[in-house]
Amino acid sequence: MYKIKRLAPDDRLKYKPLMFQWLYLQLEQSIRNGQGQSRFMLIGAEVGDAPVGLAVLELREGAGAQCAMLQCLFVDKRWRRKGIASSIMGEVRSLCLEKQAQSLEVYYYSGKSSTETIEAWLKKEGWTQPLCDAVVFHINSDIARASWLRERPLPSGLELFLWAEKKEHELKQSIEAADAVFPDFLSPFKTFAPLEPGNSLGLMSEQGIKGWSMTYRLTEDTILYDAVYIAPEYQQVGLAFHMLARSIRLQLEAGIPYGIFTVNRGTPVMMKLARQWLGPYSWKTSEKRICYLPLK
Predict the structure, then answer these.
(1) 54/29 Cα distance (integer angstroms)
(2) 103, 247 Cβ separation under 8 angstroms
(3) Strand 282-293 relative to strand 2-7: parallel, antiparallel, unpaired?
(4) Can you tell me the distance from the alpha carbon of 254 to that of 219, in angstroms, rounded to the nearest whole number?
(5) Alpha-carbon distance 95 to 124, whole Å?
(6) CA 57/CA 71 separation, integer angstroms
(7) What are the C-alpha distances in Å from 256 to residues 113, 192, 197, 269?
(8) Model confidence, pTM
(9) Is the separation of the CB atoms in 73 and 84 below 8 Å?
(10) Nearest CA-CA partner of 19 in 62, 57, 47, 49
């Protein structure tokens, strides 16, 4: 028989095998920053003393209310179809209500072997119908045929630089000096995966940082293009794809064969450009989907 328990931060090593690597790194950084269980909360399932299931809940502030994201729900293959996931979710609901979370959300991707199973389970548990949150463009070396990859001069007063060559506190100061305002999903300081130093780029003027194109190494042969930001005064001169073109050229020169671009539906201009310029050279497109679970 299994038991469900709320875990302490010290339990993370025991449950590490059940967690995504990028999520474990975020958890470690949260603990180092002193956030502890104020940001991440873990609920485990054990048989005897052995972990067989895990949920990782992340609490966030949004629009003046507490919201929660289910970052991970995993059950060991040998213990599936025994009600463990549903039992874990019962404890997740209780925890959300205690924390006065107004909503619970989960993200997943279409086009995977597990997608159909995930969606059937979400429907059974009472989650809302899935919505497309972002479109994912998958590229390989065929992107080298794109005419827009060629080098172009930057507008006067701007220069590109490798993000990893500057210190983080200097970058943050420069962004503050430029009064950059951007949504969280375009932040250049995410920690879910290792930053790719070879082709993460920044755009700078004398007034401070005016943009960036951040990439992360997902696997040895795949780079994720995650966040592209251009300051409002430069958004109409094609600088987003100028940076992406340079970044892709650097990827190809390094011999890294695959790239993934996630384009949020909250950026319609970027979505239009991505469909026009990335779409024809993508070997596959998929969706990042979101579902919500009513808590009241």
Answers:
(1) 19
(2) no
(3) unpaired
(4) 14
(5) 20
(6) 6
(7) 25, 20, 13, 28
(8) 0.79
(9) no
(10) 57
Cα separation, 132 vs 10, in Å, equals 36
- Residue with the two structure tokens 């059974």: 124
Token output for 246: 């340079």
- Cα separation, 81 vs 76, in Å, equals 10
Q: What is the DSSP letter of 194?
A: -
- Tokens encoding 225: 């293009």
Task: Give the pLDDT of residue 208.
Answer: 87
| Beta-carbon count within 10 A of 197 CB | 12
Q: Distance between terminal CA atoms of the chain? A: 30
Cβ-based neighbour number of residue 171 at 10 Å: 18
pLDDT tier at 62, thresholds 50, 70, 90: low
Pairing of strands 258-264, 222-230: parallel
Q: Which of 1-15, 53-67, 156-170 has the lowest mean pLDDT?
A: 53-67
